């Protein structure tokens, strides 16, 4: 059989809500308002699954993703938490994949 994986139905076009952040928070920090979440792939006959991320880089910094909302000067820093550590997922087309082993027909990317 051909191995297949699909994002969990709840992860397709899912909106991740962030807590509101006051502008003054950026006076002393460059990163604020983080939110941990997971992406789940449901698989059959697969040993591994690769998650690939894409999007426009932020102006002036191709390592983070451009904001498509209305907040000026704000971008998205995307990372995975495999093995409990932060591993950047870059918007410049490098380091934009994560490969995980499938267990019990699923793989969860933190």
Walk me through this protein's architecture.
With 110 residues, the protein is mainly β. The protein has one domain. It is built from no helices and nine strands. The strands form four sheets. The protein has a three-stranded antiparallel β-sheet with strand order 1-2-9, with no helix packed on it. Strands 3-8 form a two-stranded antiparallel ribbon. The chain is elongated. 8% of the residues are buried. The model has no long low-confidence stretch (mean pLDDT 93).
Q: Give the helix tally.
A: 0
Q: How does the helix and strand content classify structurally?
A: mainly beta
Radius of gyration of CA atoms, rounded to a whole number: 16 Å
- N-C termini distance: 28 Å
- What string gives the helices and strands in order? EEEEEEEEE
Count of strand segments: 9
Uncertain ranges: none
Spatial strand arrangement across the major sheet? 1-2-9
Residues in helix, %: under 10%
Shape: elongated
What is the total number of structural domains? 1
How would you summarize what this structure contains?
The chain is mainly beta.
Q: What is the fold's blueprint, element by element?
A:
Elements: E1 4-7, E2 39-44, E3 48-52, E4 57-58, E5 61-65, E6 78-80, E7 87-89, E8 97-101, E9 106-109
Antiparallel strand pairs: 1-2, 2-9, 3-8, 4-5, 6-7
């Amino acid at each position: 059989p051909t191995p297949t994986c699909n994002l969990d139905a709840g992860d397709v076009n899912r909106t991740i809500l962030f807590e509101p952040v006051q502008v003054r928070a950026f006076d002393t920090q460059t990163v604020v308002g983080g939110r941990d979440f997971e992406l789940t792939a449901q698989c059959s006959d697969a040993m591994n699954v690769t998650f690939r991320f894409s999007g426009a880089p932020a102006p002036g910094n191709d390592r983070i993703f451009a904001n498509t909302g209305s907040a000026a000067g704000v971008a998205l820093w995307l990372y995975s938490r495999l093995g409990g550590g932060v591993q950047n997922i870059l918007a410049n087309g490098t380091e934009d994949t994560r490969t995980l082993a499938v267990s019990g027909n699923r793989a969860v990317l933190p």
